């Protein structure tokens, strides 16, 4: 489940939006941590979330945290995690509706229960931290030179 959430997050939320929110929660330009300044910064960052349901949910959770005066890295992780969990539950509903249309109600309920059980294991703060953690660079399998073909073993 966490792998699917990570993939959705990476595909839907723009790096510029993440960077803007990170600066807000690191109190960049708001050393006193005033919620009013953070909310103004969040309004300025809102266009970066357009076109992404996940990004808009993240924007909403970040706004809630800023309204409550929680401007820290942990609060940012929690906002990301809450948006991810909310997005996950929306995906579960979509999948369940798909199974109802294509299969039986019983099968749909069984699939939905299994996915909800998996989603219940997600913790917002740790999920948010893992989604924001840098990923290791993948090594390209593409060959670069003329002699880089399939290895021949004698």
Tell me about this structure.
By secondary structure, the chain is mostly helical. It is 67% helix and 0% strand. It has one domain (2-132). The chain has seven helices and no strands.
Radius of gyration: 20 Å
| Uncertain spans | none
Calculate the terminal CA-CA distance, rounded to whole Å: 44 Å
> In one word, what is the shape?
flat
Sheet with the most strands? none
Key features?
154 residues; mainly alpha; flat
Layout of SSEs?
Blueprint: H1 2-12, H2 15-25, H3 35-45, H4 53-67, H5 73-102, H6 105-120, H7 124-132
Summarize the structure.
The chain is built from seven helices and no strands. The chain has one domain. The chain starts with a helix and ends in a 22-residue tail after the last helix.
């Amino acid at each position: 489940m966490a792998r699917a959430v990570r993939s959705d997050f990476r595909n839907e939320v723009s790096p510029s939006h993440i960077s803007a929110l990170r600066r807000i929660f690191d109190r960049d330009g708001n050393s006193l941590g005033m919620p009013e300044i953070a909310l103004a910064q969040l309004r300025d960052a809102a266009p970066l979330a357009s076109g992404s349901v996940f990004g808009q949910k993240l924007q909403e959770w970040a706004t809630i945290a800023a309204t409550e005066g929680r401007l820290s890295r942990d609060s940012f992780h929690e906002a990301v995690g809450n948006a991810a969990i909310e997005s996950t539950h929306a995906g579960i509903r979509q999948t369940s509706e798909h199974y109802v249309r294509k299969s039986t109600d019983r099968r749909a309920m069984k699939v939905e229960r299994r996915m909800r059980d998996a989603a219940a294991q997600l913790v917002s703060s740790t999920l948010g931290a893992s989604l924001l953690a840098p990923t290791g660079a993948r090594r390209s399998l593409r060959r670069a030179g003329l002699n880089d073909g399939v290895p021949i073993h004698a």
